[in-house]
Amino acid sequence: MSLFFFLLLWFSISQALPPPPRGFFLNCGSSTSTNLNEIDYKPDKGFVSVGNTTTINQKDLIPILSTLRYFPDKSSRKHCYNFPVAKNSKYLIRTTYYYGNFDGKNNPPVFDQIVGGTKWSVVNTSEDYAKGQSSYYEIIVSVPGTRLSVCLAKNAHTLSSSPFISALDVQSLEDTMYNSTDLGSYKLSLIARNSFGGDGEMISYPDDRYNRLWQPFSDPKLPTVTSRSSINPSDFWNIPPSKAFVEGFTASKGKPLELQWPPFPLPATKYYVALYFKDDRSPGPMSWRAFDVSVNGLSFLRNLNVSTNGVMVYSGQWPLSGQTQITLTPAKNAQVGPVINAGEVFQILPLGGFTNISDATAMEDLLESIKKPPVDWSGDPCLPRVNSWTGVTCSKEKITRVISLNLTNLGLSGTLSPSINKMTALKDLWLGKNSFTGPIPDLSSMTRLETLHLEDNQFTGAIPESLARLPHLRKLSIKNNKLKGTIPSVLLQKKGLTIQASPENMPRTNQTGQIKYTYFIKETFGHDSSTFAMFFYMTLLFPFNSWKTCISYVNVIEPPLNHSNTLNLDYRGLYHQA
Ligand SMILES: *[C@@H]1O[C@H](CO)[C@@H](O)[C@H](O)[C@H]1NC(C)=O
Ligand SMILES: *[C@@H]1O[C@H](CO)[C@@H](O)[C@H](O)[C@H]1NC(C)=O
Ligand SMILES: *[C@@H]1O[C@H](CO)[C@@H](O)[C@H](O)[C@H]1NC(C)=O
Ligand SMILES: *[C@@H]1O[C@H](CO)[C@@H](O)[C@H](O)[C@H]1NC(C)=O
Ligand SMILES: *[C@@H]1O[C@H](CO)[C@@H](O)[C@H](O)[C@H]1NC(C)=O
Ligand SMILES: *[C@@H]1O[C@H](CO)[C@@H](O)[C@H](O)[C@H]1NC(C)=O
Ligand SMILES: *[C@@H]1O[C@H](CO)[C@@H](O)[C@H](O)[C@H]1NC(C)=O
Ligand SMILES: *[C@@H]1O[C@H](CO)[C@@H](O)[C@H](O)[C@H]1NC(C)=O
């Protein structure tokens, strides 16, 4: 759903300002700050590390629309802005787009916008652009961690164009605002926010301390009122601007007020609806208006009594579909007609899930320790699923876990951060054919690890004995590194493990190119009651001069009896070729 504002709808204001809005206000693609409605829009450089910038040469354009950042990299699965935020804090995010034919294609690109791990919406600015207008989108979110990401990504309609963005606001909200919605499970995507009966002037900061945009909405069929007193915004959970209560629609005495709003059809789903009312007359004992509120014929609130202090009526989960009609029916014998001043409608968007915090933290640490990581390593590592980080595969749970990390041959260097072992759901870790340096960290807590590929890198240090404690590890590839020492014997003896290593890390061989290991073997034969076991020692001789692979399939246990035997490697059951 896109809304619009006119290019030159901004006025300079000279009055005592409320405290400046808290948050981040970015003039995307610009290298200088610009002031809009008393808010400083800063260059976006510190919050995004990808994309190219350009300037739109068009006269009369407000400064925040005259520059943009676009993202031509087709291989990248998403392009993200990242913001440090307080844990569990509430934010209103606004993305602003003005195409301005920046790419000379005369066709605004269509692409996705993403918040955290949730696909927010498709961005389609075609209609607004055709009218010479910019487009903006708003969403209210709560952030579980300390990082908030807002990303753009190509979709099936983007084709050869590039996603772009003109301005990005991340505005901190108070706890009480929109608090009837559990923002831990849902997000609120703005459909419409209007001030009714207005004179064409949009309300924003400083009138609205939170820089929400209240579009004027007029209806020539409806009589209007102008209020003679003002409300106290903090009397309302949503802290609406006092100015939104100045103008309003009314109906003559005894008549219902019928309002078609929002003025466009809505997809059938649940919405957050807040309506704002105030008696416009001078405060006094008789200054109240009583009426019932219904939406599409269903009772929204009965016996509403609106005084000059104003009132907000809301529903956190109201089903709407198609056209919406709001009807205010005056109470019997009411001396004056009903009144309505403003309204907000948000679509309730279920959270797309998020990545387990300890996995996400481990991925962030890895991102820090890798030089030149993949460009799309930003935002949520797993979600949305089609926009996961390059090389990352995740489970299907709501709180998703990283189950595979495949960075084979991506030209990476740097070290492996020790916190990688927090990714305890990882089954496959493939880092082969890069230039990783430093030691192999302790991975012993990654108890689900099945395959570990570290080959063709520059890892140094010893081969960790702790790998032997990984119960499911069946493939270890460490060849062509700068590792010191031989493979620990506990690893060589690990049941079901195939190891690929360079000769210098293999156990020492004797002149004939063989090594000798003595094992105590417990073989079990038969099933159930007929099961019997045979115990014997055996010495394995491995011809490691043309070494490729060695598997021992036996467990070493304390010998209850001693017996020695020598087996030749040709005994196929004891060795596997790579
Ligand atoms: C975008 O910037 C990158 C490097 O900053 C440059 O290599 C690339 O050519 C630019 N792409 C376009 C389309 O200008
Ligand atoms: C974008 O919006 C325009 C105008 O509303 C519409 O014609 C077009 O089909 C939309 N594009 C996509 C890919 O949805
Ligand atoms: C929302 O905030 C108000 C004001 O603090 C409080 O009275 C109300 O109980 C809150 N509602 C919810 C659902 O938390
Ligand atoms: C509405 O509230 C006022 C006090 O603010 C009261 O005097 C009046 O009787 C109420 N009207 C109805 C219909 O309840
Ligand atoms: C995330 O994974 C850790 C294990 O690393 C686990 O202890 C924790 O419960 C998981 N958190 C959630 C929210 O699933
Ligand atoms: C990892 O990527 C490489 C190269 O793209 C591929 O050959 C290999 O099969 C992948 N491994 C897994 C576990 O997906
Ligand atoms: C070296 O291997 C040969 C071949 O079987 C064996 O006879 C000899 O005992 C081994 N020597 C040592 C020191 O292990
Ligand atoms: C079996 O071997 C152990 C040590 O390997 C040794 O202490 C013990 O004496 C041996 N027992 C017999 C019966 O040879």
UniProtKB/TrEMBL annotation:
Query: One Pfam family this chain carries?
Result: Malectin_like
Gene Ontology cellular component?
membrane
Domain Malectin-like positions:
26-348
User: Which residues constitute the signal peptide according to the record?
Assistant: 1-16
Membrane topology of the entry: Single-pass type I membrane protein
What is the annotated localization of this protein? Membrane
**Entry-linked InterPro entries:** Leu-rich_rpt, LRR_dom_sf, Malectin-like_Carb-bd_dom
Which keywords does this chain's UniProt record carry?
Answer: Glycoprotein, Leucine-rich repeat, Membrane, Repeat, Signal, Transmembrane, Transmembrane helix
Could you say which protein family the record assigns here? Belongs to the RLP family.
This protein's name:
Leucine-rich repeat receptor-like serine/threonine-protein kinase
User: What organism does the UniProt record list as the source?
Assistant: Cardamine amara subsp. amara
